[in-house]
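Progress report, Aim 2. The chain analyzed during this reporting quarter is listed below.
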Amino acid sequence: QMQLVESGGALVQPGGSLRLSCAASGFTLRVYSMSWHRQAPGKQRELVASITSDLMTNYADSVKGRFTISRDNAKNMVYLQMNSLKPEDTAVYYCNARITVSSGATLSSWGQGTQVTVSS
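Predicted structure tokens for the chain:
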């Protein structure tokens, strides 16, 4: 069964850095598109960054130049390096795995989330 476990969330001061990790198990990570999403209190969950199986990346405008998504298929890990953090980056961050199979159906799985708080 697919499982994603996020870690690395913390309280950090504005301008600081964090690296989030997502440990994947129960599926072949290398064929999945992976992404990080976040949800702040009272707001909808939003896409932060994604990386495809062939390493194409995409970022929300609000994090471009500050965040970097990466993957290590050999270790079944996905990472989000976050630099120059701002208070508006405060949210619960979720890892997602997604694949479209031959039938056209999309399989998707979410982790439980990790809290990032940016505050002085």
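The chain has no helices and eleven strands. The longest strand covers residues 91-100. These observations will guide the mutagenesis work planned for the next reporting period.
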